[in-house]
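SAMPLE LOG
Freezer: B-3
Tube label: C17
Construct: single chain, 240 aa
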Amino acid sequence: MKVKDIPLITCFEISNFIFQNRLLMLIFEIMKKILAIMAAAVTVFISCAPKSVELLNGKNLEGWSFIVDGDVDPGEVFYVEDGCAVISGAPFGYMYTDKEYSSYDLEVEYAWIGSGTNSGVFLNIGNKSKPFPECVECNLKVGGAGTFVLLGGASVKEYKLPEDGIMPKFPRIDQVNEPSEKPDGEWNLVKAEVRDGHIKVYVNGVLQNECTDLRTSGNIGLQSEGGPVKFRSVRITETE
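STRUCTURE (predicted):
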């Protein structure tokens, strides 16, 4: 090969090559910084997102208090068996969270032991009287899960007096859809969306009721009434 056949690299080509490489390095550094910022944003989002808390530990009933009608040991009515909270159904009573809540999503999984009877999830508990507290009960009675029962003087905006104008002992707001419960022995999921007194309840994914409680916060409870029932999960996600 003759010397004259060897291509000559001009100063311009060298400068252009260096420029392109520097540009690539600059783009690379910018992309690294963008990815670092995105990773930090995701970390902050995850840390700030609402966290779900299981209120039943499967071992004992720590974090709950108990009220039972009559002179009966609460331990005979409320106890843990096979990882589930079991409620005997007799006598009347309820277990309630030690903590109060105001805005949250609540998911309760329950199943009847034997033939289905009656129980309830108490929301926005105020005065803890015996055997029924002041609260909005999401009734779990067979065929009526999702019905609201106003206990202990609880009041909601949507309730209307009967035609005779007399307030019944247990005012109720019937469920808005056909019963969506599963057969006895199978697990049901009740979801309550509570936002400062506004309550929406779903039973196995079906909207069954909605109301606006004049109370905006309170404890959460599980009722003893009718017959044995078990709860394998009571999970809460506070929304503020």
